[in-house]
Amino acid sequence: MEKSRAFDKTVHNFPIRGHSFMPPDRIFGRIEQKLRKIERIVSPSEYHTILSKFGTLKKWGQDWQVRDFKSVAKTVLKSTLPVTLKEQKVITIEKARKRQVEFQTVYSSEPIFVNMLKPKSSLAAMDRAKLVPKANQVKEAKRKDVAKLMDYFEMPSDEDTKRFYDDVLRGTEADGQSVDESVLEYADSDAD
User: Fold this and answer.
1) Domain ranges (residues) in the chain
2) pTM: predicted TM-score of the whole model, two decimal places
3) How far is 164 from 130, CA to CA, in rounded Å?
């Protein structure tokens, strides 16, 4: 927000659960209807094809990245606030108020101004947030289930699908689990 040339003020209005309608709700409903009519989807590209019919599709790792703002926020933002974030209905950030954020627990109430930043810190520090590395989050039981199911369908031969299943079946070192080589048999048989 500090560096933005397009925005001087950002207002986040949080709707009351169950009492609001947002335009994306209709799109999600249409996507669900389309997906129900498809018996099986075995490749990420099949999802991409469907989703791209309803809007602009941006792929993670190609068109956008995730940054670890949480780690940087710990060094910049105060750890305790005089407000409970879950109770807020409106949060306003203004460029002119560099250190304060407005909070409202009721849509029509007067805002409470809260200094969110630690002394001698700036939101510009958020630029230091590192990219979050891609990490497999598939649990071992799910990994084994996917490997068993692969006997019952023909996997598309494109590289994106192969990388997807390699990722699902291999896991990562970060999850602290060793790789079960038996679940990778498809890769060997696919290469033949």
Assistant:
1) 1-64+82-115, 135-192
2) 0.62
3) 24
